[in-house]
Every structure is written in structure tokens, then in C-alpha cells.
Specification:
It contains 11 helices and 11 strands. It is α/β, with parallel strands linked by helices. Helix 2 links the parallel strand 1 and strand 2. Helix 4 runs antiparallel to helix 11.
């Protein structure tokens, strides 16, 4: 009888055993990416019958955005989310989605990800990491204080820049690059220190750029993605059924996240209209100009990254 009771107690303890993961993200709890992560965590806990619980640490509270990949690799966090462009120094192929004027729609962005993902998975695996899913931010558009019909309209205007790519875009357009932090955009606009910028409709709404800004052009310059991943040892330590729950929830999160990104883009664009900003598409002539610029950027990137980049761009442009 005593043996039976001990076995029953041990069995009960095993049934309630739970694994906990800490998942780090650099984004605010209110971000649609973070909200998607919360739902992912809930679905994993439900599908695994409580065998795996994922605790989120948003807003850089567990690790700073650019340090999250290394933190997960080192086991300081079990899982994480970061923007893929933060990985390019160590994993150059991660920069494919940040080359301007290559993709022009969510469909293009999904096709890019389908070609990019196997390469990213290989590089992550070599670092002891497993890719779960990726979701894009809404595309980057063009804000301007005057109408833009072609690249000539940028001549001598002051374009906000924040990295080497945006500086080069300004130079190609013969605009004057102006380094302005996003938190200072409204002040710079009010003081006449900038005339235009490339950023998402979401960012425009968050910074309430209406007033000085009169036009928003849906050029869909690029679709930067956030990637969610886990320490491979932590994943492999799970029971096969729990692993399956994680992968199924990740697939759902990716599908849901892409749809939410499009909805957020549309909501933000509508809010820009509601505040008097004219939302337009660029002229066919200017569209052709920026596509040629995209081809130039992609050729330069392939030369910089090497043969591996051809595995993305040859099928992207030929299929």
C-alpha cells in the first residue's frame, strides 16, 4: 500500500511538471508584434496542456534589441525576437529584406521570405538557434511636405536619414541627407530642417507628422521583418509532442502576424487621411525609377554578400 501511494505521488508530480521559457523582445507590449507573441505563448501553453509556459519580457527588459540574438545563443534567454536587420554584421544574408525598392507588396515580401528562410535557418542552426517564425513591419512609405512626381522633385530638399541605406537613397535623389532621430522629427519639421522622409505609415501616425507633412506615397520601399527564435538545446529538450505544439503555434503566429501587419498598415494609412494627409501612389515614371534603383541596390548587395545571395535573388527575379 505504501509503495502504491509513493508511486501515485510521484506520478502526480510528473503530470504537473512544467518547463518555463523566458522570451526577450525589444518592442513595447502594445506593439502588434508583441501582442502576437503573447497569443503565441498562450497557444503553446494550451496546446501543451501546461507543459511549456513562455514568459515574455518586452521593451528591452531582459536584453536590449540588438543583443537578443546573442543572449538566446548564450542561454541568458530561452527565446527571443529581434529585427532581422540587426543581424547583418554577423549574418549578412539577414539583410535581404532591407534592400530598398526590391519588393513592392506583401506577396513579394512573402516570396522573399520563402527564399531567405532556408538560409537563415542554416545560419541560426550553426549558432545553436532554431527559427520559429518571422513577421514584417508595415512597408516603408514616403512622407513629403510637397508633391513628388519624380526624382527631380527631391533636388536640394532635406531628406531625413538614419542609416547608410537612407543616406545613399537621399544622395541618389540629389536630396540633402539630414540625420534626425525619430523622436525629433516633429521639431525638425517645425524648424524646417527636413522636408521628406521614408518610414512606415505606422511611424507617421505614432509621431503625428500631420501639419508640416502634406503627402504620403505608398512606395512600399522595403518590408523589414522581425524574427522569433529559440535556443536549440531548449527546444530539443522538450518532449516531441510539446515540440509539435510549439511549431504549430509558430506557424499560426506567422500567418496571423502577416495579416495583422497588413491591417495595421491600412488602419495607419486611413488615420493619415483623416488628419488631412493626401495618400497617393507615385507616378509610373517615378515607380520605374525606384525599381531601377532597387535593381542597383540588389546587385551591389549580391556582390557584397557573395554567392549565397544568389540563392535569393536569382529565383526572386526569374521565377
Amino acid at each position: 500500500m505504501k509503495t502504491f501511494l509513493i508511486a501515485a505521488i510521484l506520478a502526480a508530480g510528473t503530470a504537473h511538471a512544467q518547463t518555463s521559457w523566458k522570451l526577450a523582445t525589444g518592442y513595447r507590449a502594445e506593439s502588434f508584434h508583441t501582442q502576437n507573441l503573447y497569443q503565441f505563448a498562450q497557444e503553446v501553453e494550451q496546446a501543451s496542456a501546461g507543459q511549456l509556459k513562455i514568459e515574455l519580457f518586452p521593451n528591452n527588459t531582459l536584453a536590449k534589441l540588438n543583443d537578443i540574438r546573442q543572449a538566446v545563443q548564450d542561454g541568458k534567454a530561452d527565446a527571443g525576437e529581434t529585427i532581422m536587420s540587426s543581424l547583418v554584421k554577423d549574418i549578412p544574408i539577414a539583410g535581404a529584406d532591407s534592400i530598398p525598392f526590391v519588393v513592392s507588396s506583401y506577396g513579394d515580401a512573402q516570396r522573399m521570405w520563402s527564399l531567405q528562410r532556408p538560409l537563415i535557418e542554416k545560419h541560426f542552426l550553426a549558432r545553436g538557434l532554431k527559427v520559429l517564425y518571422a513577421v514584417p513591419w508595415p512597408p516603408q512609405g514616403l512622407f513629403s511636405n510637397k508633391p513628388i512626381r519624380g526624382s527631380a522633385d527631391f533636388a536640394a530638399t532635406k531628406m531625413r536619414t538614419y542609416n547608410q541605406t537612407t543616406i545613399r537613397i537621399a544622395e541618389f535623389m540629389k536630396a540633402v541627407p539630414v540625420d534626425v532621430a525619430m523622436v525629433e522629427v516633429n521639431k525638425a519639421l517645425a524648424e524646417g530642417r527636413m522636408d521628406n522622409m521614408i518610414t512606415s505609415a505606422v511611424t507617421g501616425v505614432e509621431n503625428q507628422v500631420w501639419g508640416p507633412i502634406k503627402y504620403y506615397y505608398e512606395i512600399n520601399a522595403w518590408f523589414p521583418k522581425n524574427i522569433v527564435f529559440v535556443n536549440a538545446k531548449a527546444f530539443n529538450a522538450l518532449k516531441p509532442a510539446v515540440q509539435k505544439s510549439v511549431l504549430q503555434a509558430a506557424a499560426s503566429a506567422e500567418t496571423r502576424g502577416w495579416a495583422k501587419s497588413q491591417a495595421v498598415m491600412q488602419d495607419s494609412t486611413n488615420e493619415l487621411r483623416a488628419h488631412g494627409i493626401k495618400v497617393e501612389r507615385v507616378s509610373s515614371e517615378f515607380d520605374s525609377e525606384i525599381k531601377r534603383l532597387g535593381e542597383k541596390f540588389s546587385r551591389e548587395w549580391v556582390r557584397l554578400v557573395g554567392n549565397e545571395a544568389n540563392n535569393i535573388f536569382i529565383p526572386y527575379y526569374t521565377q
